Amino acid sequence: MSEARPTIEQETARVRAVQNKQAPKYDRQISFFERILFGDGREWVCSRARGKVLELACGTARNLPFYGDEVQLTGVELSPGMLAIAHQRAKELGHPADLRLGDVQALDFPDESFDTVTCTLGFCTIPDTRAAAAEAFRVLRAGGQLLLLEHVRSPRPIVRGGQRLLEPLAVRFEADHLLREPLDYVPSVGFVIDEVQRSKWGIVERLRAHKPG
User: Fold this and answer.
1) pLDDT 10s digits, 192-203
2) Cβ-count burial 90-125 (b if 16+ within 10 Å, e if not)
3) I need a labelling partner for 183 at 20 to 30 A (CA). Which of 31, 127, 137, 147 fits?
C-alpha cells in the first residue's frame, strides 16, 4: 500500500522547517549560484518594479539593494528563520521595507492592493504554485505587473534528464523543485505574458507578465 500524499498544509509546514534549518547558511550558498547561474537576475526583476510592490517569499531580503528609492515595498516570508535575517539586513541597509511573516498561498491583503508583485527563486519551493500565482493576480491592480526570476525545467532533453535524476533528492532535502515552469501556471490564473528570457541551458528564466485592465 503506497503512502498517502501530504496535504498542502503538511508540505507547507515541511518547507517552513527546511527553510528554518537552511536560514543560517542560505546567503553563503545562494551567492555561489548567483555567480554561476543567475547573474544580474535580481537586479533585472527589482529595477522594473514600480509603485506599491509586494515581494513573495522574500527570504533573507537579498533583493533590497536593487529596488528603486521610489518603491514602497512589502515582503512576505514563510520561514521565521529567514525573516529574522531579512529584518537584520533591512536594518543594516536602513531600508524601510515592511517585511512580515506569512504564507503566499493565502495572502493577508485586500484585492488590488499592489502595483507590482515580484518573486525571485521562490516558486521552486512553494507547495501550491497555482494558488500563489492566483493570490498574486488577486492582490495586483488592473495593469499591474508580475516579475519573476526562477530556475526552471530545461527544454534541452539531456539537461532535463539530469534535472529529473536530481529532482527527488532536491525536493526531499531542500524542498526545491527542479522541473517546474512558471509558464505552466502563471497564464492559467489570468496573467498575460509579456516577456520571457531564458539562459544557462534553459534552466534560468526571467519572466514579466501583467494583469489585464
Assistant:
1) 999 999 999 999
2) beeeebebebeebbbbebeeeeebbbbbbbbbbbbb
3) 31
Q: Which amino acid is at 3?
A: E
Q: Write out the residue range of the structural domain in which residue 14 sits.
A: 8-210
Q: Which long-range contacts (CB under 8 A, 24 or more apart) does 19-22 make?
A: 19/78, 19/79, 19/81, 19/82, 19/125, 19/175, 20/79, 20/80, 20/81, 20/82, 21/81, 22/81, 22/82, 22/174
Distances (CA, A) of 97 to 25, 59, 64: 23, 13, 8
Q: How confident is the model at residue 9 (pLDDT cuts 50, 70, 90)?
A: very high
Q: What is the DSSP letter of 52?
A: E
Domain membership of residue 3 (yes or no) is: no
pLDDT cut 70: percent of the chain above it: 99
- Which residue is associated with the grid cell 535580481? 42
Please give the biggest Cα pair distance in the chain. Answer: 57
Q: How far is CA 168 from the centre of its chain?
A: 20
Distance (Å) of CA 136 to CA 161, 168, 210: 31, 28, 11
What confidence tens digit (pLDDT) does each residue in 59-112 have? Answer: 999 999 999 999 999 999 999 999 999 999 999 999 999 999 999 999 999 999
Place of cell 519551493: 125
Distance CA 82, CA 110 (A): 25
Q: Residue 114: give its domain's CATH number.
A: 3.40.50.150
